[in-house]
């Protein structure tokens, strides 16, 4: 097994998650930490040492690190508004890149990174974007059931992220809650995972009609509450909801309904699953919430396969996605989450903001094609305005 030298750019909250996740793989060596603030890189290096790891070299820019070290893979965990620029640097240097979600805040550069990722793929270079919940046991079970047609025609979905983030959270980094670096609020930062799952399950969106508002926070430019309706190419309809103003924080829930079966994933756990194909009871007026086949279904996806090797490792989702990414690198194939997948999720989020700003429905393909790239988006109301 050859060693894969990794660097982490951005040594804040999620940079640490990447360090912990990467240390699960004996073939990976973290050789460099890059952060514009040297103290942040120092702190992560200390942490890695405390965990029994080798202290990586520290840099303030990717250019310096690339010049000094032999790096094969870069994990990008910087503020969202830097992701495309920094991943283009990584790909131009011929290295694999793992980009934290969201892909970026700026859809106008999406085509550029998509083209760079495709060109890199031709040379065996892997580019993937973190969407760790696609690798949860429950998401895999639902996705395979959809692929096998076990829910029949997917008729509707409800996707809700009902979280709480305090004012202190938004005040903790000057990039948080800004259009330029966070790219949006509850939907972009907290909800993009769920948007990605919704698109993965339901397919390509057609039309989006949304409202957004800032209701329980100050000193942020973006929304803390967003609701939208979404139509899909398969004819299915969905309701999308994301908020950081739901004290004390409820669950993330995806409810998927079809003509032959339905599933509910709540806080990453499969809470309900039913497919008519299992030959159980049927009724003209439905089973009234009964017929939960979750246990039988999950038994097909043994939990051990979805855990980190070390049970104390907390970012198991990142570990699962890294398994996929490292397999793609080793096998010269596409990763489970491609840059194009992330472009679609970003375009769906942007569609919500464009629709809420214009007060009318928008076509996903128009947003994707850049029709509204020059539109300055904004949120509906502020606490002061709504008081
Ligand atoms: N996958 C997930 O579940 C998840 C969870 C949290 C955050 N994220 C994403 O991770 C990214 C970072 O979020 P965070 O909460 O770790 O933020 P953070 O503010 O804690 O960390 C960002 C780090 O990037 C550094 N940085 C800023 N500009 C830089 C530059 N030009 N070059 C190098 N380093 C630079 C900062 O100094 C800071 O240490 C965001 O895109 C966020 O959306 C993903």
Structure description:
- The chain is of the alpha/beta class and 387 residues long.
- It folds into two domains: 4-132 and 310-338, Rossmann fold, CATH 3.40.50; 133-309 and 345-364, Dihydrodipicolinate Reductase, domain 2 (2-Layer Sandwich).
- It has 14 helices and 14 strands.
- It has helices at 13-22, 38-50, 62-68, 83-92, 110-122, 137-147, 167-171, 186-190, 192-202, 294-298, 316-331, 339-358, 364-368, 383-386, and strands at residues 4-9, 28-34, 57-59, 73-76, 96-99, 127-129, 154-162, 205-213, 225-232, 237-243, 252-258, 261-266, 269-275, 362-363.
- It has an eight-stranded mixed beta sheet. Strands 3-2-1-4-5-6 form a six-stranded parallel beta sheet, with helices on both faces.
- Helix 1 links the parallel strand 1 (4-9) and strand 2.
- The longest helix is centred in the C-terminal third of the chain and has 20 residues, at 339-358.
- The relative contact order is 0.15.
- Bound molecules: nicotinamide-adenine-dinucleotide.
- Nicotinamide-adenine-dinucleotide (NAD) is lined by residues 9-15, 34-37, 40, 77-80, 82, 100-101, 130, 132, 173, 189.
């Amino acid at each position: 097994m050859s060693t894969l030298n990794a660097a982490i750019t951005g040594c804040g909250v999620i940079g640490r998650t990447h360090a912990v996740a990467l240390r699960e793989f004996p073939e990976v060596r973290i050789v460099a930490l890059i952060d514009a603030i040297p103290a942040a890189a120092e702190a992560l290096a200390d942490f890695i040492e405390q965990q029994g790891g080798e202290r990586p070299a520290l840099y303030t820019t990717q250019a310096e690190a690339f010049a000094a070290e032999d790096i094969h893979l870069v994990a990008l965990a910087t503020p969202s508004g830097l992701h495309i620029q920094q991943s283009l640097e990584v790909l131009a240097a011929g290295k694999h890149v793992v980009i934290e979600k969201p892909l970026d805040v700026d859809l106008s550069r999406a085509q550029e990174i998509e083209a760079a990722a495709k060109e890199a793929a031709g040379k065996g270079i892997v580019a993937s974007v973190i969407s760790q919940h696609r690798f949860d046991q429950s998401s895999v079970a639902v996705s395979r059931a959809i692929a096998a047609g076990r829910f029949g025609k997917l008729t509707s979905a409800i996707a809700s992220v009902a979280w709480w983030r305090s004012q202190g959270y938004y005040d903790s980094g000057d990039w948080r809650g800004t259009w330029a670096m966070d790219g949006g609020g509850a939907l972009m930062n907290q909800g993009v995972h769920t948007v990605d799952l919704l698109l993965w399950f339901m397919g390509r969106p057609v039309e989006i009609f949304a409202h957004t508002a800032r209701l329980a926070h100050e000193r942020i430019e973006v929304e803390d509450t967003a609701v939208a309706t979404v139509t899909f190419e398969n004819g299915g309809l969905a309701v999308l909801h994301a908020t950081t103003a739901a004290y004390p924080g409820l669950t993330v829930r995806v409810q998927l309904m079809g003509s032959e079966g339905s599933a509910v994933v709540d806080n990453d756990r499969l809470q309900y699953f039913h497919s008519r194909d299992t030959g159980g009871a049927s009724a003209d007026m439905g089973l009234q919430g009964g017929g939960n086949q979750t246990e039988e279904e999950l038994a097909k996806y043994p939990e051990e396969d979805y855990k980190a090797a070390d049970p104390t490792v907390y970012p198991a989702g990142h570990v699962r996605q890294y398994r996929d990414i490292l397999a793609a690198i080793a096998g010269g194939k596409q990763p489970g989450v491609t840059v194009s997948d992330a472009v679609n999720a970003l375009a769906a989020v942007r569609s919500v903001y464009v629709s809420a700003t214009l007060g009318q429905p928008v076509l996903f393909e128009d947003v994707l094609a850049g029709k509204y790239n020059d539109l300055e988006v904004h949120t509906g109301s502020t606490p002061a305005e709504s008081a």
